[in-house]
Design brief:
This protein has about 220 residues and is an alpha/beta fold. It is built from 5 helices and 6 strands; from the N terminus they run H-E-E-H-E-H-E-H-E-E-H. Strand 2, helix 2 and strand 3 form a beta-alpha-beta unit.
Length: about 220
């Protein structure tokens, strides 16, 4: 009996470690789709490109703005981080948003914003077969297997975890007429394992490749 309990406990710990390791994967950002105006001007023709952001975290916004501006400058583009961060949609924030653009004297605006955030939860309710390929004693019958789900005295505790997926969009507008000239949508999985500072480089890299693909850079 003690051997069965030890085996069950070992399997639970192994299962927890495996699940946590899987959920601790590095974030991955991929390009979904881009759109470009028929007559797309090259970014190097921009006099001043203002970078402005909307997301739930100001730290993410700050990291993205600074790193995007730095990378675009390497491409010969006069990109400027607005250092204005927006997390809410209120009358006061809308007015501040419009004022930030008007006071910038920019001829083009790069707007990056999070569009959707989804979190998928995973539950490990324990297993019936142990690491040696033998069924646990308390789960050899259908009633015991059923009880493993519900009762702490019978259940082999597993690990609970969640995976966060963030979809975001980066768009460029001409200040005059506020016309959209380019947009790209990207998706980041395992976003729960990173911070704004570490998330931004990969996101910026995907954006730059998308711009090159559409001959904006």
């Amino acid at each position: 009996m003690k051997r069965t309990v030890r085996a069950a406990l070992s399997a639970a710990l192994l299962g927890a470690a495996t699940l946590l390791a899987g959920c601790a994967s590095n974030p991955e950002t991929t390009l979904d789709v881009t759109w470009a105006a028929p007559q797309l001007p090259p970014a190097k023709s921009f006099k001043k490109l203002l970078i402005i952001t909307v997301a739930s975290s100001e730290f993410v916004q700050e990291a993205f703005q600074n790193q995007m501006a730095a990378e675009l400058k390497k491409q010969g583009i006069n990109a400027v981080a607005s250092r204005r961060y927006f997390t809410r949609y209120t009358d006061a924030e809308r007015a501040r948003f419009a004022r930030s653009i008007e006071e910038s004297d920019a001829d083009h605006i790069l707007l990056a914003r999070v569009t959707t955030t989804a979190t998928k939860a995973y539950e490990d309710r324990g297993t019936i077969i142990g690491p040696g390929g033998v069924a646990y004693g308390d789960a050899s019958g259908v009633q015991g297997a059923y009880a493993r789900y519900f009762y702490p005295t019978s259940i082999v505790s597993g690990a609970d975890a969640s995976v966060k997926t963030v979809t975001s969009e980066t768009s460029i507008f001409a200040a005059k007429g506020e016309k959209l000239i380019w947009s790209a949508r990207v998706r980041t999985t395992n976003a729960q394992t990173t911070t704004g500072e570490h998330y931004a480089p990969q996101y910026v890299g995907v954006m730059l490749e998308a711009m090159k693909k559409d001959k904006l850079l």
